[in-house]
Amino acid sequence: MRLLKQLVAVAAVTFVGGQAIVAVKGNAWLTLIIGVLTAVVAVLVYGWVVRRTEHRAVTELARAGAVARIARGALIGFGMFAAVIINIAFVADYDVNGLGSVSGAVAILGLMAAAAVTEELLFRGVLFRVVEERTGTWLALVLTGGVFGLMHLLNADASIWGAICIVVEAGFMLAACYAATRNLWVPIGLHFGWNFAAGGIFSVVVSGTGQSEGLLATTMSGPTMVTGGDFGPEGSLYTVAAGVVLTLVFMWLAHRRGHIVPRRRRAIDVQPATATVS
Questions:
Q1: What would the pLDDT profile of 116-131 be if each residue is shown by its tens digit?
Q2: N or C: where does the chain have the smaller number of CB atoms within 10 Å of the terminal CB?
Q3: β strands within 90-174, DSSP E
Q4: For residue 20, is it within any domain?
Q5: Closest to 237 in 3D by CA, of 253, 224, 251, 226
Q6: pLDDT tens for residues 225-258?
Q7: Local structure of residue 265 (DSSP, 8 states)
Q8: Could you give the CA distance from residue 27 to residue 107 in angstroms, rounded to a whole number?
Q9: E-assigned strands of the chain?
């Protein structure tokens, strides 16, 4: 029941914020304001509903160190995507044709702030965290990563291959990031840094949602397995490889820090064996 209440509360903010952003489409500054406001309200609503349903302090969104953690995650996300673009440029055709659109980048900043915060609250803050309590870290990572990837099939230029890539490079990686840090700020920053680098700076397609107009005017072509095709670089084998590496690193850190939750065994599995008297 608490899972449902938490999902509904955060999903409601996500829906309303998304509709508001659609309503002001074309106005970069209003998009930025509404996107940031959606992110802030989502955090407040998540904190409220968790406190009401679980009767505890919301330590995963502790204010102390929040800015530093978001920045750390954003740097990881930006660095990861920049590395992917560099590798694609060596093998395929990625050209920078000059400056792009500052207003476009401003709008994308708001869009990605809302998307990163609401998706991390829904998928890592609620879904992964609650499922992990019942199934353990590894199974929760697989299950919630799969759901996260399937969600991207709703995008305009989605494909089965693109969704599979998202499962591995984002669903698994972001859940592993939460498991390693046990806070939501780092995965939020990572998610935001990745998405804003893609759309707001390098101006490529983000998860099959169409070409972005960011700070750089760019063109890209080449083999689909390298560039990701219509789905964008998130459908590239380079991105999958980068996501696997970071997932393994985060899970190693989670293990080292003692953050791995074991699978909950059924009562029948843990009953002590009865001694036989001869």
A1: 999 999 999 999 999 9
A2: C
A3: 93-99
A4: yes
A5: 226
A6: 999 999 999 999 999 999 999 999 999 999 999 9
A7: P
A8: 8
A9: 93-99, 216-221
